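Hello again, I could really use a second opinion on something today. I've been staring at a protein lately and its backbone has me curious. You're getting the sequence in one-letter code plus the fold written as tokens. I'd be grateful if you could look everything over and explain what you see. No rush at all, and the record is pasted right below:
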Amino acid sequence: MKTVSAFFIILLSIISGQVHGQFVCNTITTTSSLKSSSFIDVTNYIPNDSTPVKYIRVNIHYMLRSPSDPLYPGNFTPTGDGLGNNYNGYQFAEDLINTANYRLSLNDPMRLPPGNSTPVLSRRYFYILNGVFFHEDSNYYYYPAQPDLKYRENNGEAVNVYITILRNSNEGGGGYAVLSGIRFVVLCGIWERYRSNIQDKGLWVAAHALNHEIGHNLSLLHTVLTWDGKCSDFVDDYCTDTPTRIEIRENFNIEACCGWNCSTGSNNMMDYSGEEAITPQQLGRVHWTLANEMKSYLWCEFVNYNININIFNANKSYIGRNVNFSNTTPIIINNNKALFINAEEVTINGPIEIWPGSLMIIGLAPNKSDFSTEG
């Protein structure tokens, strides 16, 4: 018997022109209190330098065409990028999370209102890649399909992010997300941008889209845009430190809602400006949500105490405080599949074979009794 204790992350692997502009975003409306001014204790949750950093589990799902489709695969696969190159979906998912985390590590001063003194705080939250999945199903291939209805994994323990495809590559990109309940995100234009600019992989824009949409999961609303991405004077995100469009226009004669990479408009992460500024009250909403509604999504939180694994036949992600390989015959990970585990302790009681091109990733979260920081 082999026991893997906490404090380590083990990676066992054997691996033999700009098209899109501004993204458009939809939020799925709910009756949650998160959409109203009754949102409680925001100021009490604004982070500071002593706030524990929180890590949110994220699953990446690639929606592919069905194998019978003559244009298969049409997205990243376990072995390639869908265009004949060896750079694969596992690698892109890792690069996407790393780029998104890098962008989260930055925060710029709010551009608006001019001359403002809004504090620039550390966000104190990042992502952990929890699993990568590939679904060969043309029925859920095109945006705005709802693949979460069929393909969700780790319900209530990881944000499921679905990378879908646009029917018309000239439409740009976009996504939608939920503000309450089981959190998930649907993105489009990610693979298309990669295809048009393989050199930089389109990661910078993809990471912004991911941060924006997960921002909705974390209770953030648009500050100058309607739910369908239109500029509006009548948007309220319930944060007094994010100025409204009409306030900026009437007081400074500036258009706050001027689109992607506009040097005079809003640079807030929730405006689809391509930039990442975020205010203290917005961060208060984020940390309120992580403490009250999404605590189970954190890297060091577990719903299941014990999980036993005795067979493996498909990409899978297991989340449990204690994960046990209870097999007596070999568990074989092959055919470019991956086994992901998030746990405090993993016990291996039997043989495991990892074939070339396949992955076994064990992410061991710190035990709360050993650390004062949160997951």
User: Anything to note?
Assistant: The CA atoms of residues 343 and 364 lie 5 Å apart. The chain has a mean pLDDT of 88.
